[in-house]
Hints:
Residues 140-214 form the Cation-transporting P-type ATPase N-terminal domain. Keywords: ATP-binding, Calcium, Calcium transport, Calmodulin-binding, Ion transport, Magnesium, Membrane, Metal-binding, Nucleotide-binding, Translocase, Transmembrane, Transmembrane helix, Transport. Helices cover 50% and strands 14% of the residues. The protein is of the alpha/beta class and 1070 residues long. Strands 10, 11, 14, 15, 16, 17, 18, 19 and 20 form a nine-stranded mixed sheet that branches. The chain has an eight-stranded mixed sheet with strand order 8-26-25-24-9-21-23-22, sandwiched between helices. Strand 10 and strand 11 form a beta hairpin.
Amino acid sequence: MSNCKGSPNSRPNDLEAGSSRSGDYDDDDVCSSSPFNILSTKRASIERLRRWRQAALVLNASRRFRYTLDLKKEEEKRQIVRKIRAHAQAIRAAYLFKAAGDQANGNAKPPPTADGGDFAIGQYQLASMTREHHFPTLQQYGGVKGIADLLKTNLDKGINGGDDDLLKRKNAFGSNTYPRKKGRSFWMFLWEAWQDLTLIILMVAAVASLALGIKTEGIKEGWYDGGSIAFAVILVIVVTAISDYRQSLQFQNLNEEKRNIRLEVIRGGRRVEVSIYDIVVGDVIPLNIGDQVPADGILISGHSLAIDESSMTGESKIVHKDSKEPFLMSGCKVADGRGTMLVTSVGINTEWGLLMASISEDTGEETPLQVRLNGVATFIGMVGLTVAFAVLVVLLVRYFTGHTKDPDGTRQFIAGQTKLSDAIDGAIKIVTVAVTIVVVAVPEGLPLAVTLTLAYSMRKMMADKALVRRLSACETMGSATTICSDKTGTLTLNQMTVVEAYVGGKKIDPADNKSELSSSLSSLLKAGIAQNSNGGVFVSETGEVEVSGSPTEKAILNWGLKLGMNYEAIRSESSILHVFPFSSEKKRGGVAIKLPDSEVHVHWKGAAEIVLASCTGFIDTNNGITVMDEDKALFFKKAIEDMAARSLRCVAIAYRSYELDKIPTDEEQLDQWALPEDDLVLLAIVGIKDPCRPGLGDALRLCQIAGVKVRMVTGDNLQTAKAIALECGILGSDAEATEPNLIEGKAFRALSNTEREQIADQISVMGRSSPNDKLLLVQALRKTGHVVAVTGDGTNDAPALHEADIGLAMGIQGTEVAKESSDIIILDDNFASVVKVVRWGRSVYANIQKFIQFQLTVNVAALIINVVAAVSSGDVPLNAVQLLWVNLIMDTLGALALATEPPTDHLMHRPPVGRREPLITNIMWRNLLVQAFYQVTVLLILNFRGRSLLNLEHDAKNHANKVKNTLIFNAFVLCQIFNEFNARKPDEYNIFKGITKNYLFMGIVAITLVLQIIIIEFLGKFTTTVKLSWKQWLISAIIGFISWPLAVVGKLLPVPKTPISQYVTGMFRR
């Protein structure tokens, strides 16, 4: 429970929502006095995580901390990684030193030969060459072309890719997998469930009771007391282990999904998407900025290719790759440029595979809610321990002073007369009751309920196209107050087509009307489209055309094909000198090509107004280059504005000639050469239509109702962004489309930090934004108290994704770098899926609160009933076995029933969950106290007046007491079953709404009821109960049933808006 005040602009207290703002930016700076108040585990230090572990009251550490980060293992993992890196570098250095010596002495050896098989080179030769980065060996094999020939690979078309070919390669060189450490078996979970201190004490007590019982009463009757406790403990352990094991399997499946990267390879001349596990030696793989290098290999060709090798070397140094430095290591990231690689080693034969096989992937990670629940459990546990100790003292004093009597009035202990074995047996029974009170009082399963609900939610979210990478993000999403979303592919369909075109200084209609193009303009335009593209065109033997690449690239390539472009012919008749990959900072990309006549053309493509600003001329319909005068520049600007106003993405294509002798000939200098971007000649401006996603308006309206503001942050033209925002409903009207609601990235960037924070809340649309602008917006929003979710797909989005409270990467268009920086991956790139994640985030919080309310009601009622009875009469109506059964209902079965409630639309009609709001809200306190007061009152009346009320005065005292205690136990359990329904809807009158959809809830309630009937009717010897008549069953059922109308009456009671915890804190401060 939090002792911190909410932010000044917090909303009225709400059970499943809370305030609209968290008011936190530096998450651990505020409220750090409580070790359990960690608002974001995403940035928490190791010391901060260690603090809450040390402060928690824990009975079974191995189980409680199972799904938290193992701090010891984390340190061990880092040490192993350091050792393997150092070892690999030492071997490489020694090998290079030896090779240099051999070369100096003229002892250079011929390349080693293969060890047989289908290929002329073996795995050992490939792995040693690649791992040691030994360039002389590569040269001896004839360079990358020689290696490709040995591997039967065509460098342009890749491998054949047939099933037989793939099988041969896997047999010869291995598959791209590494041996993983097996997950824990069921027996491990069973062993961990045994580690609970209270259960161990109960087992010891059960064994002692068993021995004494058999000794005094014989084996036939004497084993019941001890045996029943032992059986109850074993049942608790087995059920706990089964529940934990099922959760573990769910997490394992989700982790498999996280690791399964999809990527493009070239096989049989076409680009196909495969799993990273299906890559084989000999594959040709295109690499683009943000990709992960999926295996060890050699660079075939590349342009400005820069690799971040920090994951392998430990040094955050970007390494440029070219023909002199061609070796690529698996697990590294493409930081810049593009290229193609030939795979030479996969799986365990790579350093990355060796590294991954050597470390156990500890997926543990605590969530803020889990940490807070540990705080709640610790507080309740302390109260429970105090109460249990008081009961133990009272019962022992009463027993040994002779005040504890049997139902017939006989004193159980008489000093000097009672046998030692009887005295020990009596003391053991008292200790057993006290320890069982601890079992019930310390809610060990409370923090684990978070894991249960998260495991359930994550599995269901996969069906809703969201893959959770960080557990904490699942619940943090419920607190999100704003979502900064990309436009292309998230708010729109990402299905682009060129619908408008300006070529030759005029608009051509239709856009693919090639008859209006002159021959010179047509050939230049087609060359610019084919050469300056990161996509590709594959024509099958049947003549079927396949276009690959990003949606924008595909749209322009398809337009080029309609204009008569022969992609392969154009690409083959000229050679690429240098490439400037598309940059989200510069909003354009270019390529320098050398024509057969040695003439050099530099082609540019990018944001229309930016490319247009660099143009000094355009090609007219007569093939002549006309100077771009002011009128023509205004004509093109007006065309761009008109297209943007109709929500078209505007792209300009331009070129210029360049002198060959001015281009650097040295490879290193050429890599650093900046393509000339001035004096361009405009070839075309195209308008690309990308329609809004169906149902986007409904999703955005749902966000508005839920108190979550959606902001569009796009690299597109401000006018295009405005048109899309008006179309989908982010902007309500033209009147809203003014600064600062609508702002350009460079205008926001130019403001001071303070000014940015002042206007950040008002921004709805940011156009022409760079990734850095997105980062600045996120920082400004977080500083003003927002909980920020951000979508991103590019490598440059990684800082914003990391900085945000929840980073959402796109699964289809997102790069590996973006995905690794994110917390959740949206598998279908659809904004509607983001809204579903918000729903699930709120559901996690709501389900935990339902479980807390249910569990605390049981805790309070069981404790008070036993304490009052123990102090007043020296006897407890609920014995050890009964309390263990109640604990099973409350902890494991209750968590399963309530923590797996599916989300409802009701959750989205509330403000976001406040991260500083107390876990136990005033509504929960009201519901809890009403039910607990009712249960305690009714059951204590039965305890003290039960014999007369149940007409048992004429029965034997011992039998009457057993009937009374059985009825109390039965009524208590039925109260919990009925109250489980109440807990489903803490602030709604209709507690049955949607109940038929939750089969697990209905199943658990049915199982609990059936087991209760079996316990009462058939297992009396074990639970010290007797069979009840149908009238007594009816009385029990009526007592339980009354909790339903009582809950309705309770909900009519008003609750104060200020949390009770603040009143309590205020009283202590005075």
